[in-house]
Design brief:
heterodimer; A: two-stranded antiparallel sheet; two-stranded parallel ribbon; 40 helices; elongated; B: mainly alpha; Helix Hairpins; 3 helices; about 65% helix; about 0% strand
């Protein structure tokens, strides 16, 4: 071969996934371009497959592996063997026909780009499923088919039925996909790999494992929901609201076969056990018979076809469940046959719908006269579905019958299985007869919206080709599908294939007798349909679909109730819930933690400590009790702030004390400014119930954090402080360890923090933008606010203070690396000094004299900090590596300069800008405020 | 001393939580400030309480045990500044919401 075959294999899904948006891009050149693009993609994939086919048919397995996330067992690995080839030929071949068909079927007003793109995405995902070597990857493709089929079923998205049908299909298959995910994870856990090569060879180990049963059940849930097996079948008839090309492609040939594919693919790993027999065989048998009976009673042509599809899928499932090599072969054979005849039947149903405007078999009658060619084609395909000799459906049904006759187990009830199979065969004949007789004969059409006639030439072409295949396979099975079936069976069984003979004539034997009985009995059932229909009419309407819908409604309404309970739009409620949850969680952790009692303090409390605590309690409790007296509350809170600052001083944290004092000043000014605008109206008293709730929460939170503090203080200290203390001078070039940590060791954290601050400034700027508030003309007691100019004494005193304060802040900034100080503190001091100018001289004086570009300054600060970090890259060091050295300056003497100081300068600029933006922004409000007395 | 600090943290938390649960914006602002004090003290205490041992390396002093843990201090320092940012932002929100809705209730949507 000229080209590497691994490359060819990888090219198949790659082409499909890369090219799926093509129709969308080309639709502006017309419907034909979109359709041609889709056809070209399908044809390319098909051609690549055909290039690879000879080697695969000869029995080789092509593997491609690309490491992706090897730690999680997820690799991009592909596998092409007989089974994959069989399914991918169906996917590409029937896909190509559906593309042609859809171009004629869908209304001329549709642009088709979206449709074809979704169809191609679906095809790509299906190819992904059947060509995956890695099960996790298979699962990803599996989910993509669910999603893209959702879009395809909901093609008529303006119709409620389409949307709800699509939603139901997605819910059922998506739910199955969820189970499948769990099953695959278990399987990978048992086998130790997600690669099929490993899993398929580990059958014995998997069967012996304790988790075999749950693994099997979960994987089967995935397969059964996808393949519409009872009791998950109900989504398929509902999904018939999809355009017919979609039904022909997804609901006959491909997606519903994905579940079957999974059964076949994992057969060597999971098959051959009693549990497999009962679950797979049992589900298949129930589905086969139930859906066949349901199909008979449908009046909608597509409904009949949908139930017949479910029934035929049940038949294939049953064959896999019978668990003999030959039954597996029969199952694979029926996969091919069913795809061919059912796709052509769906397309014929689409033609009838298209020509008549309805699909109701009580009205669509006698079509043979109006469209003889289509009718002949549909009758042949229906014959194949019924199992009429010379057609492909006959052969696989014959194999099914033969399997039931020679089934080894079930000794005492040897006759039961063949009898069951014959009855199922009768029902298939009956619903096929109903389709043929009701639609094409049975008198004249009743009240059709349109005058039916033959469809356009090329709309019929796909049906002709498929029906031709029905005949070819039916008459020359060994010559047409023999090699493919051999290769697929070998790949499925991972073993030598049993000897079987694909032929039309096997002599007079039991299966032939059963076929004859089925044909005769089926026709008889159809002839006697009138009493059956009457009997069915009076049956109570019990349908899994209604159960699903009720469940769905119930789920939605409980979700709404829960949301209404939790998310009622009340911040108070959210906060209460949040605090309760935190209290519960922390309480649980606290109580279930180590139970060592709380040892009371090592250091004795001294008078100063007690006095500070008393001051703090007065401040905190006073502010809480008197929060309605707003001004008083602000003053009380500032007392708490002072005590906190003193605590920092006492316990060896001078930097914190400086910062706290500076921030305190800013906070108080901020609160006073806000207070001015807040309405003086007193808040209504909280209800007793709410008060009790809040007090309880507060008590629990306070007691909890207090206890946690005690326990923490009692626990032995484990710290990484040693590193910072040791490395501060040699590594960071500074004696003030706190500052070195901030600007050097953990500089990246600080960079993040000043970014947050910058965002606060920008957000405040935006929130205050053009904000107009009512300013009170008088206070709560009715006294007018003072309107005089700023006191001269104050303003004159404050102006010369500015250079002084700035000098102090420069000093604090420069010494920060070695003594308490640094960018944060210096920034706060500078901003307080500047805010003083506002306070003393008024906004009108200060505003023009100060820089008014917060965004630029913030950017400057952040760039300084980040830039010095980036600069270390030029010295081939990691981000934010610092350098330091000594410089002799006149007057000041020896100054230690560290690159970290530039970083600190960035911090300084940001802090100053933030505080100024916020406070001066608030101050500016007064220039725009409207006075209540004037309005 | 440990017990005093624990009491302080507990009382500040309780007062902060209670005020945050009030219905008007101003007490929420006060509550947030009190809660920030509590959390900062708590974080600070995780480095333990030591007197006369500021983390300023003195020339000649070789023993590193004479210094208190600097890491919680660094964390609290930024926490204080960020806390101011939070308070400021909340204050702006409160004013904006007052201007949009004409009320200083935290749940302006709930007002009939």
């Amino acid at each position: 071969m000229l080209v590497n075959s691994s490359l060819l294999l990888a090219a198949i899904p790659a082409t499909a996934f890369a090219a799926f948006p093509l129709p969308l891009l080309l639709q502006r050149y017309g419907r034909a371009s979109a359709a041609l693009a889709a056809a070209a993609v399908m044809a390319t994939c098909l051609a690549l497959l055909l290039l690879l086919a000879p080697a695969t048919l000869a029995g080789s397995t092509e593997l491609v592996q690309l490491a992706w996330l090897p730690d999680y067992g997820l690799d991009l690995s592909l596998r092409l063997d007989g089974l994959g080839l069989l399914f991918s030929l169906l996917i590409c071949g029937i896909g190509l026909l559906v593309v042609l068909y859809a171009a004629y079927y869908l209304p001329a007003s549709d642009r088709l780009g979206r449709f074809y793109a979704t169809l191609l995405l679906f095809m790509a995902a299906m190819l992904g499923i059947v060509l995956s070597e890695n099960l996790l990857m298979l699962l990803v493709f599996w989910e993509i088919t669910s999603l893209s089929s959702f879009l395809l079923v909901a093609y008529h998205s303006d119709k409620y039925e389409s949307r709800s049908a699509a939603r139901m299909a997605l819910a059922v298959t998506g739910g199955g996909g969820f189970a499948l995910l769990a099953g695959i994870l278990l399987l990978g856990h048992i086998a130790g790999s997600y690669e099929l090569s490993v899993i398929l060879a580990a059958g014995d180990r998997i069967h012996a494992h304790a988790l075999y049963a749950p693994t099997l059940i979960l994987i089967l849930l995935g397969a059964f929901t996808k393949s519409a097996q009872f009791p998950f079948h109900f989504w398929l008839p509902t999904a018939m609201t999809a355009p017919t090309p979609v039904s022909a492609y997804l609901h006959s040939a491909t997606m519903v076969k994905a579940g079957i594919f999974l059964l076949a693919r994992l057969y060597p790993a999971l098959g051959s056990s009693d549990l497999w027999f009962w679950l797979v065989g049992g589900t298949g048998a129930v589905t086969l018979i139930y859906a066949a009976a349901m199909a008979l009673f449908r009046h909608d042509i597509k409904g009949l076809l949908a139930y017949s599809t479910i029934s035929q899928l049940g038949l294939i499932t049953l064959l896999f469940g019978l668990d003999t090599p030959l039954s597996v072969v029969a199952g694979l054979f029926h996969v091919i046959n069913h795809a061919i005849f059912k796709a052509s039947l769906f397309m014929a149903a689409g033609v009838i719908d298209h020509e008549c405007g309805t699909r109701d078999m009580r009205r669509v009658n006698g079509m043979f006269r109006y469209m003889p060619i289509t009718a002949t084609l549909a009758i042949i395909a229906a014959g194949s579905m019924a199992g009429v000799p010379l057609l492909n459906g006959f052969l696989s049904k014959e194999m099914f019958f033969a399997e039931t006759v020679s089934y080894p187990q079930f000794e005492p009830l040897g006759w039961a299985l063949p009898l069951f199979a014959t009855i199922a065969g009768m029902l298939a004949v009956a619903y096929s007869s109903r389709f043929v007789h009701d639609v094409f004969f049975n008198g004249e059409p009743i009240d059709l919206p349109r005058q039916p006639h033959e469809p356009p030439r090329w709309m019929r072409a796909p049906i002709e080709l498929l029906v031709l295949l029905c005949l070819l396979v039916g008459i020359f099975p060994g010559w047409t599908v023999g090699p493919l079936l051999d290769a697929a069976a070998a790949a499925t069984l991972q073993d030598t294939i049993p000897s079987f003979r694909l032929a039309l004539w096997h002599g007079f034997n039991q299966p032939l007798l059963m076929s004859t009985l089925a044909l005769a009995g089926g026709v008889l059932i159809y002839v006697l349909r009138a009493p059956l229909f009457a009997w069915q009419e009076q049956l109570p309407r019990m349908h899994p679909r209604t159960a699903f819908e009720r469940f769905h409604r119930h789920l939605a309404s409980s979700a709404r109730r829960l949301v209404a309970m939790l998310d009622n739009g009340s911040l108070q409620r959210y906060n209460a819930l949040l605090f309760s949850f935190v209290v519960l969680l922390a309480g649980w952790a606290f109580l279930s933690g180590p139970t060592a009692g709380i040892r009371l303090p090592g250091q004795a409390a001294d008078a100063a400590g007690v006095a500070a605590l008393i001051a703090l309690l007065i401040g905190a409790v006073g502010a809480t009790l008197l929060y309605r007296e707003r001004l008083l509350a602000v003053i009380l809170v500032s007392v708490v702030g002072l005590v906190v600052a003193l605590t920092f001083i006492r316990f060896s944290a001078p930097d914190l004390a400086l910062t706290q004092l500076a921030v305190e000043t800013g906070t108080i000014i901020l609160m006073l400014l806000v207070l001015y605008y807040l309405p003086p109206r007193q808040a209504a008293k909280s209800s007793a119930q709410r008060l009790a709730r809040d007090l309880l929460l507060a008590a629990f939170a306070g007691a909890g954090l207090g206890l946690i503090t005690l326990r923490m203080l009692a626990a032995p200290l484990e710290t990484i402080a040693g590193f910072y203390l040791e490395q501060s001078i040699p590594g960071g070039g500074g004696a003030n360890v706190v500052n070195v940590i901030l600007v050097d060791f953990r500089g990246f954290d600080t960079l993040g923090e000043i970014t947050v601050l910058a965002m606060v400034a920008l957000a405040s700027h935006a929130l205050l933008d053009r904000l107009v508030l009512f300013a009170p003309g008088q206070d709560a007691d009715g006294r007018r606010w003072a309107g005089e100019a700023h006191p001269l004494f104050l303003s004159m005193l404050i102006r010369p203070l500015l250079p002084l304060a700035l000098t102090v802040s420069v000093y604090i900034f420069l010494r920060g690396h070695n003594e308490p100080g640094g960018g944060f503190v210096a920034g706060l001091i500078t901003s307080v000094a500047l805010v003083m100018q506002y306070l003393g001289n008024g906004i009108a004086f200060a505003q023009p004299r100060l820089p008014r570009q917060p965004a630029r300054l913030l950017a400057l600060g952040l760039l300084l900090a980040a830039g010095i970090g980036v600069a270390s890259w030029f010295f081939a060091r990691p981000f934010l590596t610092s350098a330091h050295g000594h410089v002799q300056l006149p007057l000041l003497g020896d100054i230690e300069l560290a690159s970290a100081m530039v970083f600190d300068l960035g911090v300084y600029v940001v802090v100053v800008t933030v505080v100024l933006t916020v406070l001066s922004g608030l101050g500016e409000l007064s220039l725009r405020a409207r006075y209540r007395s004037e309005t | 001393m440990d017990a005093l600090l624990a009491i302080a943290v507990g009382v500040l938390t309780a007062c902060g939580v209670f005020l945050i649960l009030r219905a008007r914006t101003f007490p929420v602002l006060l509550g947030l400030t009190l809660l920030s004090y509590a959390v900062n003290l708590f974080l600070f205490a995780s480095g333990r309480l030591r007197v006369d041992a500021p983390p300023l390396i003195r020339a000649g002093a070789s023993a590193l045990t004479n210094y208190t843990d600097p890491l919680p201090q660094a964390l609290v320092l930024t926490a204080i500044v960020i806390g101011f940012g939070m308070t400021a932002y909340l204050a702006m929100l409160a004013l904006r919401s007052l201007s949009e809705s004409g009320s200083d209730h935290v749940d302006t949507d709930q007002q009939p």
